[in-house]
Amino acid sequence: LNEHTKTSMLRNFRCLECGCVFVSNRFTSDELSQAYSGLDSSGYYADIEKENHAKMALAIANLREVVKPNESIIDIGTGNGMFVSMLHNDGFRSLSAHEIEGADLSAIAKIACVYQDHDYSSIPSNSFDAATLLDVVEHVPVPAHLIGACSRILKKKGVIYFHTPVVTRT
Q: Whole-model pTM?
């Protein structure tokens, strides 16, 4: 059940080809903001910290193969900013973060340029060498819009690095 919108049930679908799972319900930007701002983020992130840390460490190792520490990275759907902090601790310095309006990103404000909106329009075009999306694509109402925004904000040879959770383990 869903307590943040008029929608009482979330419809999940899994691609038979790749196994990716997504929610097919459509939500307004206001409903998404309400849902995420009502989240007990300290409790939520504490529950998934160990798994997130391992996933993020692997992402950094993978990024090191294609992105230099002086190149620009934007973490879209940054959540609590943990990945941006880990990138910074690993020597990356040209960092930015994006999250929907209402999220508190003050913890990373001194190490990253922060963008907040619902449609990615605040992020400048042709500005980043890499865009990271860790467990984000499956949360957005229109994944194609997000990928299109990444194409717009990335420099000519920029890369998108994304991860989606495995929720269908057998």
A: 0.77
